[in-house]
Design goal:
- There is one protein chain.
- The chain is an alpha+beta fold and 493 residues long.
- The protein has one domain: FAD/NAD(P)-binding domain, CATH 3.50.50.60.
- The chain contains eleven helices and 19 strands.
- It has a six-stranded antiparallel β-sheet.
- Strand 10, helix 6 and strand 11 form a beta-alpha-beta unit.
- The longest helix has 18 residues.
- The radius of gyration is 22 Å and the shape is globular.
- The two termini are 38 Å apart.
- Its cofactor is FAD.
Length: 493
């Protein structure tokens, strides 16, 4: 990932607008540019299905890798494994958390939802939901990675879903292409049919017609951008940019959410193996033989906050505000309950921190403190009718003071802090919500069949449809959305 991140050939490298509550910093947010999207460059952490491992019962218990077999599959296109080497730091850290009341829990990363506002999303994703009995998502564990242990290579959407089907005669993959807009024709039932896509390849503009459907999988930042440049979105915003509004859908680009983190770096014993050890050619060779994986651990901690009404912190069209109010009602039930609001990820090495110059001769460990259910809501909207101009990404990080409170409580669990959070906060790269699956009257953009409201054949299939941030990484959910979408499309056809 380190070689791909921030490399403009493989990374869109978006930046937010200046964040008022984060010392006017522009936060960088990586998005994968290439086959496999962001799954080709993420940190490989995998929050769901597990593969068999060869560990003694005592070691497995020490490392918190004893999942409930009834809650997990043992096959599927994505290959998941645990690292062949786990640093002693991991066990020591889990022991410390045990002493502080956060016990080992190998089932602490699970996807489950509840609440009225998620009814449409629940209906859509039902076959992929984990049983409530495994929804124990408070505790500490060793996170599995999306690495094929047989080949020591990344297992991601391009290798798992595309590669086995790339030779099919009904599949054409066009790389180095940039989509400009979707073209529509209005039907007698007042719905708009997506009939073609305009795109640029090698500086030549082309138009590709669709016989059946057009599916947008551009991600949380660019899916709403494509909808808006194509005439679907808030009528006033489109009018200001001289774009004809075909479908007035104010929820497009609203309800933006993301996981955010603040890193804590500590120097550790020089004898410990960390990422810095790889500077030694002999250690690098040894680790390559063992498979090059990241040792990551999560911790989830609750905090007591007041979830105020969103009107004070969210500027959004009235219909979108209706949906956010319902989200707040759900989130109030999470406060002071056994539900995680914060998370710690332990990285066995140095995570880059603004203003900190490491000593190359030292060994480090990093605790990444994150909040996982933000109360702040932002937007992503176009500033030009040209799709090649990046959208204005305005997450409004920390606009609701409760988010800062949660993050500070999470950081203070490991270290005493004050302004540290605002000076160092970074994204976890989990943006969701900008094309939410919710009722249209609540600011929703798509229905349970993934169709954009007001269209008959335009679907959105990416994490922008998730209406409310979840308490784990979104990679697994992205795969589930894609598989469910494939089922829907095949049934329709």
């Amino acid at each position: 990932m380190a070689l791909n991140t921030r490399n403009p050939r493989y990374d869109w490298e978006f930046y937010t607008e200046p964040q008022v509550h984060v010392q006017n910093r522009k936060i960088q947010s990586s998005r994968g540019k290439g086959l496999g999207g962001s799954s080709m460059q993420n940190f490989l952490a995998f929050g769901e299905n597990l593969c068999p491992i060869n560990l003694s019962a005592d070691v497995a218990k020490d490392f918190a890798v004893v999942p409930d077999p009834s809650s997990h599959g043992m096959n599927g296109p994505i290959v998941v494994s645990f690292p062949p080497y786990v640093s002693p730091i991991h066990k020591d850290t889990l022991d410390s958390l045990d002493g502080l009341g956060l016990l080992r829990n190998s089932e602490s990363i699970c996807i489950y939802f509840f609440g009225y506002i998620l009814y449409y999303f629940l209906t859509f994703l039902q076959p992929f939901l984990v049983q409530q009995s495994a929804g124990r998502n408070v505790g500490s564990l060793l996170v599995p990675t999306a690495v094929d242990p047989k080949t020591a290579t990344r297992s991601y959407s391009a290798s798992a879903y595309l590669a086995p089907n790339v030779e099919r005669n009904n599949l054409l993959v066009l790389t180095e292409a940039f989509v400009l807009k979707v073209r529509f024709e209005k039907q007698e039932n007042n719905l708009h049919r997506a009939e073609a896509v305009d795109l640029v390849v090698d500086d030549e503009q082309l138009s590709v017609e669709a016989n059946k459907e057009i599916i947008l999988c551009a991600g949380t930042f660019q899916a709403p951008q494509l909808l808006e440049v194509s005439g679907i979105g808030n009528r006033d915003l489109l009018s200001n940019l001289s774009i004809e509004c075909l479908i007035d859908l104010p929820g497009v680009g609203e309800n933006l959410q993301d996981h955010m983190l603040s890193p804590i770096v500590v120097q550790i014993d020089q004898n410990m193996l960390t990422v810095e050890s790889l500077r030694d050619p002999e250690q690098l060779k040894l680790q390559q033989e063992l498979y090059d994986t990241a040792n990551v651990k999560r911790w989830a901690a609750s905090a007591t906050i007041e979830a105020s009404s969103p009107e004070a912190f969210v500027k959004t069209p009235p219909s979108a505000l209706n949906g956010i109010k319902k989200q707040y009602e759900i989130m109030r039930t999470w406060i002071d309950s056994i539900h995680p609001l914060g998370q710690l990820l332990n990285l066995n090495g140095l995570f880059p921190v603004l203003g900190f110059i490491p000593d190359p001769s030292k060994r480090y460990m990093t605790m990444l403190a994150a909040y996982i259910h933000p109360l702040s809501r932002g937007t992503v909207h176009i500033t030009s009718k040209d799709a090649q101009v990046p959208p204005a990404i305005q997450p409004n990080y920390l606009a609701n003071p409760a988010d800062l409170d949660i993050l500070c409580k999470t950081v203070k669990f490991a270290y005493k802090v004050t302004r540290y959070v605002q000076e160092t906060m970074l994204t976890v790269h989990h943006p969701v919500g900008a094309a939410s699956m919710m009722p249209r009257e609540d600011g929703g953009v798509i229905d349970p069949s993934l169709l954009v409201y007001g269209t008959s054949n335009l679907r959105v299939v990416d994490c922008s449809i998730i209406p409310l941030e979840i308490s784990c990484n979104i990679q697994t959910l992205a795969y589930a959305i894609g598989e469910k979408a494939a089922d829907i499309i095949k049934q329709t056809a």
